[in-house]
Structures are given as structure tokens and as C-alpha cells.
């Protein structure tokens, strides 16, 4: 059941980096991990495809970015996967890295981009034949934002960027905060009759049951929870966890069996929706349906003995680091109203969010910083970035889905979920993603050939 | 004698900024000073000219950037002069700002550019009519580098930059380290017969005299030093101070009486060279000539009672802050060989430089960081930057003196010294600088009209 992808051998490497690129008082270094594969690399006319690692173990991203492996030969490319600081094994202060806000102080996008810059310069300096080769940044999701921002801030180091499912506009008031949950809802309403309507009603079913005498125990048993609900706050946590599950299923609604956040069947939203065909059912039946639906996501293997409310995805993602980033720079407002979406109404409350962050990490978010730094919607002076977005992906709401200029291109993939285009080619891929990938290769080849034309002119 | 420039009234303002834009552990703010003048500003079709302050008091830069005042009406421009953190009155930790490397940790170009970015966003948000106006960054010298880098890193905030006398390539091995002193030498050799040759010989005259019994006392008296030389290291300091003086005179070799680094006559290098007509003179005569020449720079007012070896320029420059910056990011290698230039041979020794920095500030320079961050010579993907350089200016050696693309433009000003074009128009200005300024205005107007065309298209 588990999908095991075996890629060409790659080498695990380490590179010493400054913990603080932007200050000189702390003169400490740490080891960044990166993976490198040069089986198809050609010195003559080749290229370097550089994955700008995001919030997790780089090996996991490497194994879920089959696109780069698929095109390596055609692009005569060396593949490099750079791990993001504070994730995987690239911990600036080892086990202490997450101990407090002082140790976490160097976990920012700016530091991460500077890491990538130093690594690229190092690789060009030390790998014979690499110096005069074009580098392209690629990334998905947060890694896609980093790829785009890297091209914006370090255009001298990369000739272009493929930013897949990169919600660079999910900040401040650049897009409405309810756009994310609306897209999740659309996915569900298109994947089965009454599906989103049933889920919209399911919250009250849970609420009503929770209020009854033995309701918490009954809910815990009906949902096979590993840790039973004991107090009323647990019910909110339960609903948050279920909401996040539906969001995740929407994100990974891939057309084939896959194992990204969890092992899942093909088109998992459709499978989930099979349990939500009827919105007018007794509350107990509704909860039993929820349990069946949750099992699609948490128990596709059939091995799970109970469901754990504190987990929603693979442990390869660095939840601690991301929680800190969400509390500092990466403030991405979301909200729901229960009318245009299938979730309980939940407004965006910056004050509350900030207070929670302060409680958890001792820091306060700066929600307008990312648009100040990276330009918000005003990015038209940059060049050579492809923004690809799957139409099914809730993150596409904060993504660039229309061409900005003739070198800042948007590709929307109907039937595509979260960075589907970066995944390995699959027989079940819709034509739309196949076309997307060929278009991406076409543009990347253009950047590469433009680079070599300029290089020849200079020599 | 003192040139007093009285500009239109401007308002001194303060803006609260984060001490650390790139970390969240220190949640402290400080007050940045900026000057604003809107007498000629028009809401309709106007612009904002934003001076990216450099290493000194912003009022002093404001008074030495008459060009902006001269063109304000024609450009319907609001003028903003932003003080650089750690200079003038913009001290993040008040009197403690320079106490140690911990307090100095936030003195970097990246933090300064982020300050400018926040200020521009703030002005656009709070000044009615400013929101939809194009901003142009202007700066000279280090401020010119900041202007260019600001356009490179924040093109969403400024439509272009005028970077006057900005030696963005005086880093690492981007240009030969001896280019700077060679240009100084050329200035002197072109400003009078035997001038550079005399200076080249003057060092040994000093050395020979210093070795004699009463030599130090004699030198101290002959040069009217405020603090007599007492040990042999003092002689090296003396020569360094004299060298720096000739460098400064070359920098401010303006065609009219001026008061930038010091009050000076027109064409001060020519005036200095009047005392260096004869290279074959006895050592004592040579030293008396040096004294006369030094007086041109240090005593044009005729008021100085003695010469102070520890000062070379106006106190409006922030020497402490700059010394720290030179020991961290702003490592600009210079060297001399005494053959192709008129100075004593002095090689560039990075190890020694780094050790000195560590002794003085407890930090070590990172000489390759600026090219990593700002692209070194590989900046062709940027647009709308004018690099102007005076041919007499030693800093032009590290500047951009040839067009890179049709929107990255270089203007070389024959007979121009350090950012002459940014100074107020003067009846004695050579035609070259008059032409330069009209060209600069032409390009800036183009950026502004392009901006308004885009704006109209969007609405």
C-alpha cells in the first residue's frame, strides 16, 4: 500500500553556514544538509535544478518531487535539494533549536534564502564545470514561495524559478481571508452529492451530541479516538482537527494512490464524500459517517487502532518550526463563515492570534512584513517565474493564477491538487498536468538557452 | 568663507522602526529621523524623491544634495531624506549604540534598506495623495550604493534609482585593489607639474627626517601638529593621515569653493599641487611644502592654530559607525604599490584586516557577503538604475562606468569629483555635469511617466 519511490542514487552532503547572515555578533556556523544527484548532469550545456527546501525533512521533499528526476536527463541537469534551516537535520542549535525565541531567532525566510545563496555560490566554486551553468530554483508550497522570492531577491544566482502552489499572496489583506476555505468547500461539493452540505451540518451534530450527558464518551468511542474527550474544550479541538483533515484531503486530492501527508487512495475527496451522501441523517449516524470518512485519511492502511486528534500529517513536516514561522513572518489569514463554505464561522482575529503567539513562543507576528519585503501584488518588475497552481488546491486562492507579464507566468491546472506538477509522472495523471509540465520544461529550457546566449556574448 | 546653503523649509520627522527587521526575539523599536519638504509637491502627476541616507547626519547630506532641491519643482516632487540607522540622531540604543558588538549588531545594509522600505510604506499610507505616486531612490557614495541596492531588492517600492558615485564593485576581487589609489594619483599628476611625483617622494623625506635625532620634534613643529609625535608608530599614523588627506582632496575636487568634508577653495587639488611643483628639494623643504599643502585642506579658513592628526573630515560623518561597517559587510579592499601610484606600497592583507577588526569590534568581516547579497557584477536582470561617476573621483574605480543594459545606465562625468551631480547647480559647474543632470532628469521623468502609464492601465 505504501508507495515507495526509489530514485537514482544521490549523495547526502553537509555545508557549513552562518547561523546569522544578517548580524555579526554571533559568529557561529551550523551544518545544512543538501542532497545532490548528478547522474544525468552534463557539463556541456547542462543546468542545475535547485530545490528550495521547505518546512520538513529534505529527503521527504526529494521523494515527493519526482518531476525533477523525470526531467533531469532532458535538462542535462544536476539536481540539488537544499534543506531549510530548522527542519530535518539542519538544526542551527541541535536539540536546543526550538527551546526558546532566542534560539529560534534565525528561523526566517531571509536567512533561508541567504543559505541557498551561499550554497549555490559554494557549489559553483567547488564543482568543476558548474561555475558557468544556469541554476533554476524549484519548490512547492512554502518551498514554492521561497523559489519565487529567491528569484526576486537573488536574480544573479538563478535564471528563473518554478513556484508550484506558492500562495505568495495569502498575506495581510492581499486576498480575502475566506478564499481558502471556499476552495476546500468547492472541492467537496464537486466530489459528491450533498458532500459539502453534510459536512456543513456535521459540526452542529457534534455540538448537540457533546452537550448530552454521555456525549463526550459516546463521541470518543464512535470516532475511535486514542485519547477520549473529557472537557468541552476538547470538542473544539476535535472539530479543528476534523476541519484540518478535510483541508488536507483537499490539498492532496491526487488522481492516483499516493503517500504525501498520509497514504491515500486516488481522488481521496471523492472517497471521503461517499460517506457524506446524505445531509439529513440523525446526529449519531452523521458522526459514524464522519468516522468512516476520517478513516479514508488516517487509516487507508487499515492498521490504525485508534485516531489521534493531535496528528494530521506526516511527521516529516516540522510542525514546531512552522508554528514559530506562522507566529512571526508567515502570517496567512484564513477565515470561514459557514455560509459560503462548509466550516463553522470563524473570523480572523489578529489580536487573538498575536496573543496566542506570544503565549506560545514569546514573539509577536508582523503580518505586514512579508508584503513589505517581497512586494505583495506589486511584483511586475521581476522576470522568469512560473507560478503553477492546481485548481483544486485551497492554497491556489493565495497564489498567482493570472499572467502578470510575459515572463511572470501563471499556469492553472484543472483537476490539480497541491503542487501536483512537481510529483512524478503517473499513468493516471490528467492531461492538464502533463501539459503543464511540458510548458514548464519549455520555459525552463528557454531561460537556459537565454543564459547560454548571454554567456557566449560575454566571452 | 563658509558656504551656507539655505533650503526651503523642511520638516524634521521621526518614525518608529524595529531595531531588528530580520529577527523576532528583540521586539524593540527606535526613532528614525527623516526630513521632508513638500513645497513643490503636486498630488497630480507628482513624484517622491527619496534620499537613501548614508553614514552621517542627514541634515548635512540634505544640505549637500542641492540637486534634489533644484529639480523639485520640475519633478513636482516631494523630497524625503531618510537618516541611516546608527548615524545622526537615529541611534537604536541611544548613547549605548556603539558600546559593543551586541548593540552594533543591527547596523547592516539590509536593516537600513528595510528601514527605508518601512518608511516609504508608512509615508504612502499616511500622506493623502502619496499612495499612488512613483518613488525614486537617490543617493551618493555609500548612499548611492544603498539607492542602487534598494532598487534591486525593493523594486516594488521605487521605480528607479540614481546612484551617484556608488562604488558597488569595490568589494572582494571585483576590481583590482589598486584602482582607487591610481585614480587619486592621476588627479594629482594632472593638476600640476611634478605634483604626484613630489608626493611619491615625500614619504621617504618624512621617513629620513623621522630617523634623525630631533626628527620627530622637528616634524611636529614643521607641520604644526596639535599633538607632537613621540614614537616611531606615530610616524606611520602621520603618513596615513596625510595620505587620507590627499585622498579626500581628490574626492572633493569641485570646480568651486565648497564645504563638504572641509571648507575648500575651487579645484583644491590644483591648489595643493602648487606646493608640490618641485620633487627634488631637500627633505626639510619637502615637509614645509607638505605643511602648506595640508593647510589648503585643514586651514582654508585661516583659523586653525594647529593640525590634528586624528581628524580628516567633517564631524557630520559617523566615523564609529562606518568603522564597524567596514569591519563587517563593507569591506572595500584598497592597496598601493608606490610605482603606479604616489603612495607608499601597501598590500591588501585580509588576515591582518580581520584581526584588527576583531581587536577593535570583536567581529570578523565577511568580505564576500556583499557580492553574494547584491550580485557583484552580475546585476543585468535589474532595471532603472543610473550609475553616475565623476572621472576624478577615486571611488569611480569601483563604480559602474559602462552601460550594462538599456535601463542600467552609466554616466561618466569628466572633471567631476565625488557625486558632483548631486550638488546644487553652480555657475562654475563644467558643462559635463550640467549635461549629466539633464540626462538624469530625463531618465527619471521617463520612469515616472512609465509608472503613470501602468497605473492608468490598471485602473
From TrEMBL, chains A, B:
The keyword Protease applies. One of its GO terms (cellular component) is lysosome. It is found in: Lysosome. Its EC number is 3.4.16.2. GO terms for biological process: proteolysis. It catalyses: Cleavage of a -Pro-|-Xaa bond to release a C-terminal amino acid. Coiled coil: none annotated. Keywords: Carboxypeptidase, Disulfide bond, Glycoprotein, Hydrolase, Lysosome, Protease, Signal, Zymogen. InterPro entries: AB_hydrolase_fold, Peptidase_S28, Ser_carbopepase_S28_SKS. GO terms for molecular function: serine-type carboxypeptidase activity. Cleaves C-terminal amino acids linked to proline in peptides such as angiotensin II, III and des-Arg9-bradykinin. This cleavage occurs at acidic pH, but enzymatic activity is retained with some substrates at neutral pH. Belongs to the peptidase S28 family. This is Lysosomal Pro-X carboxypeptidase. It comes from Bos taurus.
